[in-house]
Write a structure and sequence with these properties.
Blueprint (H helix, E strand, L loop, with lengths): L16 H12 L6 H5 L4 E7 L10 E4 L4 E6 L4 E6 L4 E6 L5 E7 L4 E6 L3 E6 L5 E6 L4 E7 L4 E6 L5 E6 L4 E7 L7 E4 L2 E6 L4 E6 L4 E7 L6 E7 L4 E6 L3 E6 L5 E6 L4 E7 L4 E6 L3 E9 L2 E9 L6 E5 L4 E6 L8 E6 L4
Length: 345
Amino acid sequence: MPLPSPVSRAAGLRLHGSLVLATASLAALGLLSGRASYAADLPQLVETIPLPHVKGGFDLMAVDLAGRRLFVNAEDNNTTEVIDLAAGKLAHTIAGMHEPKWVVYRPELNKLYIANGDGAVRVLDSRSFAPLHSIQFREKANNLRFDPKTCELFVGVGKTFGAIGIVDTRTDAITAQIPLADFPKQFEVEGNFIYVNVPEANHVAVVDRQKKAVIATWPVAAANDNVPMGFDRANHRLFIGCGPGKLAVLDSTTGKSVAAIDIARDADGVHYDAKRCRIYVSCGSGSIDVVRQVDADRYELAGRVPTAKGAATSLLVPELDWLFLAVPQQEGQTAEIRAYAFGPK
């Protein structure tokens, strides 16, 4: 069952929800055209969920669509927070984590996989949150990706070295570790290939899953500090956020640089919206930048939504047309999750 839309959940929305309704009404009347028509797709804040007990910042999130839950790693708090999206409030706190990084939810297994800074991928029952298993790597476990066809979980590993670990989730055993030039950040899995951001080397490593080896490295010429990554699979375009304030676009078939767009600094989340041909970039400097994809080779900044300093962790949920943003606790700011909705296509 899909989550309720921002419009249908009026009781749980804040004042900003009226902006979504107004935009939808104007579009239906044909009053938006040209550049204004895609301005309607800028994220609109519709709900804020406070987490006053959380100290410090966040890392990545995952969603349970059927159960209407959002799992959020509060890395500085050493907890994973479970948000009830239907009620718009905290439902549960999973304690005992160690700088939790990424989380993967597998409904068919009723499991949560949570990568931790101590090298453990902790496996929990997704209903009771009871610990089931711990998969131990030598150093920090960070980014996670899951392939439902092979039941393989891919783990970014390392702090003084780098590797992609492979876990068979049918047994929760490590089956391989593929060495990289340095520690990995965000990566994407597509068919037989894994595209990995390696910021210290300032390149994208291309991993062949069959050979279990790096077969190419593509420089990110636009800027350094290449951490977050998004993917337009239909057009074979990788979107790479760079800390100094650039979004690099690479052809995933050749590694060729296609474009570089100026964005705000400290990008940590890059998401491709295939429905609207937009890229949403959450930036720690305090904004969500929206980049319009004119075509596979042309891009332009469509708008910038002010957020909060340090709010860089985000998750796009296309099924809901929602984007979730984690705002860290800091002086004068309580930790919170913000939900942004989009206008019509």
